[in-house]
Amino acid sequence: MIKLNRDSKTKELKATTGLKTQSWRLYKSGQNKPFTISRSGFSDFLDCQRCFYLNKVKGLKDIDTIPFSLNNTVDELVKKEFDHCRERKIPHEVMKEYKLSAIPFMHKDLEKWRASRTAGIKYEHSELNLILRGGVDDLWVIKKSNPPELIIVDYKAQSKNKEVEKEDYLNDIYHQGYKLQLEFYRYLFVKNGFKVYPKGYFLVYNALKSRESLGKEMKFERVLIEYEYERSVEKIEEMVRDMKKVLDSKKIPKLNPYCQNCAYTNAGSKFIKSK
Questions:
Q1: Phi, psi at residue 130, to the nearest 5°?
Q2: Of 154, 135, 128, whose CA–CA distance to 237 is shortest?
Q3: Of 92, 103, 169, 250, which one's alpha carbon is 20 to 30 angstroms from that of 21?
Q4: Does 256 have pLDDT greater than 70?
Q5: β-strands 199-207, 220-228: how paired?
Q6: Please, which residues have CB within 8 angstroms of residue 135's CB and are 6 or more apart in sequence?
Q7: In whole angstroms, what is the distance from residue 253 CA to residue 255 CA?
Q8: Exposure of 184 in the CB half-sphere (CA atoms within 13 A)
Q9: Residue 189: which of 154, 234, 140, 152 has the closest Cα?
Q10: CA of 194: how far to CAs of 35, 62, 231, 245, in Å?
Q11: Cut 0.90: pTM above it
């Protein structure tokens, strides 16, 4: 998809160099101020070290993605449901349905932790001079746990023909990043001193295509998928340290033969050089 650059306020077309303009967005080895890496940035590192390095160190801008408005709407409406229960300190009906002894977690920083674009839950790794952050969809807590034992929950909206089943959902090749997402959030909360339940959950809303027509409303199948963490907090820490080594490297990582972004820029540069 080709995307034209527009001013965020006026929406007018705006020339772009393809490079970041704010110096604070660039990592410099040995810098005094901690450098911030988001959950999506960590995922980028694991997918392609070359693209990650070019973005964080050399300043090559990300390609903006078009937001999924329908998915965001589902997220917002589901949050309202759980916030209603949170205020009353009662379990949501999905917890009763799946016999989960929990209620939505109440905390003064919850809204900050859920703000994925501006804040999120943060951990300052003083040894590595990094701030790691990520925005969770929701937190539940095991009833009567002391200290509170937090359950990390991620809302997912999709539309597939067949019913959602745990094994298929977790084994789906395109859902492996979802699991890492929960594991990274657990890492952040543990590093902030919280006790985290050994299982996270995906609350999946699957829009049904079996109806004959849409009408004025869309029907969803709602399924709670339990995920027992595969990677330990120590393993995530190891991966974070590997990421720091790449940031501090003087060399651009090798081209990733499986990365579409690498393939696109590499092929394009060959055409340009041949002229």
A1: -125, 150
A2: 128
A3: 250
A4: yes
A5: antiparallel
A6: 39, 113, 114, 115, 116, 117, 119, 120, 121
A7: 7
A8: 26
A9: 152
A10: 23, 33, 18, 28
A11: yes
